[in-house]
Amino acid sequence: MLSKEQIAQRIAREIKDGYYVNLGIGIPTLVANYIPENMDVVLQSENGLLGMGPFPFDGEEDADTINAGKQTITMLPGSAVFDSAMSFGMIRAKKVNLTILGAMEVSENGDIANWKIPGKMVKGMGGAMDLVASAENIIVAMQHINKAGESKLLPKCTLPLTGVNCVKRIVTELAVLDVLPEGGFKLLERAPGISVEEIKNTTAGKLVIEDDVPEMAF
Fold first, then answer.
1. Which residue of 89, 101, 174, 192 sits 20 to 30 Å from the alpha carbon of 129, by its own alpha carbon?
2. What is the pTM assigned to this prediction?
3. In what order do the strands lie in the sheet with 105-107?
4. Other CB atoms within 10 A of residue 142 CB
5. Which helix (H) or strand (E) holds 179?
6. Residue 132 and residue 162 in contact, taking contact as beta carbons nearer than 8 Å
7. Contacts for 39-46 with beta carbons within 8 Å, 24 or more apart?
8. 46 tagged catalytic
9. At 201, is the secondary structure helix, strand, or coil?
C-alpha cells in the first residue's frame, strides 16, 4: 500500500505547468514537496497566500507563516499575502485550476463528505464548500478504507455532504480511480503489490474495470 507521501507524490503528477493549485488539509499539503523544480506552479492557501513553497526544514520554521491547516510553510520568491475575502474571491471566480482535497467519504457519482462526523467536535467546514462549489477539477487524496476496515468509496455518502457530483479523480493507498460521468469508480492504476481483487473487495461503490490495470511506478 502507498504511504501518505507516495499518495502525494502520485497526485503531483496531475499538476501541469502554469497551474494555480489549492491544497487542502492533510495529505494534500504534502503535494507541495513533490512539484518538479522546473515547473511553474503557483500554490494557493485559502487563508491568504499565493506562492506557497515546501514545508520548512527543522529549525527554519516561521510561526507567522502557516497554511490553512495551521502548519508552518515556506514562501517562494514573488509570493503574495492577502486577506480571506480576496482569497475566496479567487476561488469563487474560478481562478484556481486544480483543487486537491482530503475526504472521509466519496460516492460513486462524485459526492464528497469531508467536513463533519456527527457527534464529534468540528472547528468549522473551512473553505472546502467554496472550493467544491467553484472548482472544475477536483482530485481527492484519501484512505481507501477507514479504521474499522470499511470502504470509504461508497454507492452513497453516509456523512454530511460537502459537495455534490464534483470529484473527478481519487488517489488512495490502493489505487487511482476516476469518477465516471454516468456513475461508478473506474480503476486506472493500482498500488505496487496490490491486486485488482483486493481493490474490488475494499470498494463498496460500483467499480469499473477495463482491460489490464497497471501498477503505479515510483
1. 174
2. 0.93
3. 112-113, 105-107, 153-154
4. 25
5. strand 175-179
6. yes
7. 39/15, 41/15, 41/17, 44/20, 44/87, 44/90, 44/91, 44/96, 45/73, 45/87, 46/22, 46/84, 46/87, 46/88, 46/91, 46/126, 46/127, 46/130, 46/131
8. yes
9. helix
Indicate the residue type of 110: G
Place of cell 488539509: 25
Question: What Å distances lie between residue 3 and 7, 73, 80, 124, 214, CA to CA?
Answer: 6, 21, 32, 27, 18
Q: Which of 5, 14, 37, 46 is catalytic?
A: 46
Q: Which three cell numbers stand for residue 1?
A: 500500500
Helical H segments across the chain, by residue range: 4-12, 84-92, 128-134, 196-201
SS (H, E, C) 73-129: CCEEEEEEECCHHHHHHHHHCCCCCEEEEECCEEECCCCEECCCCCCCCCCCCCCHH
The C-alpha cell at 133 is 462549489
